[in-house]
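Protocol step 4 of 5: obtain the predicted structure for the target chain.
Materials: sequence only (see below). No template structures provided, no constraints applied. The aim of this step is simply to have a reference model before the mutagenesis design in step 5. Sequence pasted as it appears in the construct record:
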Amino acid sequence: MQNYLWNRVPKVSSSLVMGMTLFLLGCGGPEDMRPPRNSVSGIVTYQGEPVEGAIVVFRPAGTEGQTANGRTDAEGVFKMGTFEGSDGVVPGEYAVMISKMESTDAVKVLPEDDPNYDPNPKEEAPPENLLPEIYSKAETSGFSVSVTEGKDVTDLEFELNDD
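Step 4 output (structure tokens):
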């Protein structure tokens, strides 16, 4: 009887492993139901120099498209994303907004029992845009982008000046 069971164990184990493998291969996860996106990238310069840390926002100009954004690296290069990371841009017409906000030190909040606690703290000024304000608004930036379905856009150049 014991030999009979031991002879069956390898057959059951291999069948179980093969069945689980086939099951897992069939489970590819949920289908991405989000609209198709195209890769969109480019460079931002200010007075001829690359801008690091600028935020680039694409706002739909009409009913087609969906807001997308990106951030420039040390070379001024950005890659746009709509839903996550740099996953691309939904086809459509877009107005472009570009800004770079100054970094501010985090305000340290002290507990009430701390001897340095101030019950009437000074109000902090909002961070300042380090680029000309004209580029931070869709209506005044002067930049627009057209993204066509199935066609990547990888050569955008946004040159900012003090004009």
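Step 4 remarks: The longest helix spans residues 2-26. The helical segments are 2-26.
Proceed to step 5.
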